[in-house]
Amino acid sequence: MSKFDISKLPKGPKGFMHDWGSDQRAFKGVPWGKSMMWIFLLSDTFIFSCFLISLMTARASTVVPWPYASEVFGLTVFGTSVPLLLIAIMTFVLITSSGTMAIAVKYGYEKNRKLCGWFLVATALGGLTFVGMQAFEWSKLIFHDGVRPWGNPFGAEQFGAFFFMVTGFHGTHVSIGVIFLFIFARKVFRGDFETGRRGYFTSMKSDYEAIEILGLYWHFVDLVWVFIFAFFYLW
Amino acid sequence: MTTDKKQEVHTHKIGIYLWIWGLLFVFSFFSYMVDYINYQGLLRWSLIIFFMLVKAGLIMAIFMHLYWERWAIVNVLLWPMTAIGVFIAIMAAESYYTFFSRMFYFVVGS
User: Which of A54, A61, A157 is the best substitution to test chain B (most B C-beta atoms within 10 A)?
Assistant: First the structure.
C-alpha cells in the first residue's frame, strides 16, 4: 500500500488540508473498499433519512390521531401488558450483535482466525434472531390486528404504510447482512485471507480489511435501528 | 508485505468494545424507560433525541472507528448530515402549513 509512514502526517484540521491538497489520493491509509463502503453508507443514510423525514411530514400534517406505538407494539406477559417489549428485546439483540461484530473485527486484525470466525457466526445468529422477531411482529400486526398499508384499526391510515416501508427496508438490510456474515465466516474459517484464495464474485485476493468493511455495514444497520427506534417506536 | 501491514493496523483492547457495548445497553434501557414511565411532551422528545444521539455517536466513533480515522474522511462523512438537517427544517415547515390548511378547510370550511 502506501510507501510513506502515515503516522508522521499532520493530524486534525491540518491533516484535513494536507490530505485534500495532496497528490493522488485524499483518503490516506483508507483501503478503497472501505472508502467505497463509507460512500455507500452515506447514500443509504440519505435513503433512510428520506423515509424518516416523510414519516415526520405525514405525522405532523395529519388531522387524525397517530396510533400510539407504545400500545400497538405492547405485549401481554403473564397477564400484564408491557409496552414495546418485543421492540426493546429486538434493540438489545441488535446491539449485542453489533458488539460481537466489533470484537470479530478486532480478532480479524489480530489474525486470530478461529475467534474472528466464531464472533462472525455469533453476529449472524443475532441478526437472524432479530429478523425472526421482526417476522413475528409483522405477522402479529397483519393477521391479528389487521394493519394494512392503507389502513389500520388504531388511527391515521399512513401508519401501516410507514411501518411496512421503514421496518421492511431495515429488515432487508439486516437479512442481506446476515447472508454476508455467513459467507465471510466461511471464508475466515477456510483461511481465505491467509492462503490468498480469490473471491468467487470478485476473483480478487482479500484481507481481514474485508471484515472491517463488513463490520461498517453491520454497525450501520444497528445505527439506523437507533433512529427508527427513536422516531417510529418511541416518539 | 506482512510486516508492512502489521505496522499500519492498530487494534484496540477488547475492553473498550465491551465498555461501549455496556453503555449502549444502558442508554437503550434509559430510552425504553422514557416510554415505560410514560413521559410526555417536550421532556419525552428531548430525552429520546438525547439518548439517540449519544448511542449513534458511540457506535460511529468507536464501533465504526471514526474516532481513529483521519479528518479527510470524517469531514466527508459528517458534513452531508447538515443537508439532512436543512431538509428536516424545510419539511417541518411544510407539514405545519399542510396541517394548518387541513384544519382550516376541514374544520372552518371552504
Answer: A61
Write out chain B residues lying below 8 Å of A63, CB-based: 99, 102-103, 106
The answer to whether residue A124 sits within a structural domain is: yes
User: Which residue do the cell numbers 506482512 mark?
Assistant: B2
Task: Calculate how close chain B gets to A144, using CA atoms only, in Å.
Answer: 24
pLDDT beyond 70 at B1: no
CA distances from A109 to A4, A173, A212, A217, B75 (A): 21, 25, 8, 17, 25
Chains A, B: CB contacts within 8 A come to 158
Cβ(A131)–Cβ(A171) under 8 Å?
yes
Nearest CB partner across the interface for B28, out of A30, A60, A92: A92
Phi and psi (nearest 5°) for A174? -60, -45
CATH code of the domain covering residue A123: 1.20.120.80
Q: So what's the ipTM on this one?
A: 0.90
Q: Which helix (H) or strand (E) holds A136?
A: helix A113-139
- In chain A, which residues have their Cβ closer than 8 Å to the Cβ of B103? 63
In a domain, A12, yes or no: no
Q: In percent, how much of chain A has pLDDT > 70?
A: 98
By residue range, what is the domain housing residue A63? 28-234
DSSP strand pairing (A75-77 vs A80-82): antiparallel
CB < 8 Å to A103, chain B: 14, 17
Q: Residue range B78-104: average pLDDT?
A: 95
Question: Which pTM value belongs to this model?
Answer: 0.92
Q: What is the mean pLDDT of residues B62-90?
A: 94
Q: Nearest 10 degrees: CA dihedral of B47, B48, B51, B57?
A: -130
Query: Domain tally for chain A?
Result: 1
Residue ranges of domains in chain B: 2-68, 79-110
Query: Which positions in chain A touch B84 (Cβ < 8 Å)?
Result: 45-46, 49, 53
Of B17, B25, B65, the CB nearest to A103: B17
3-state class (DSSP) for residue A235: coil
Indicate the SS3 state at residue B91: helix
Q: Is A52 inside a domain boundary?
A: yes
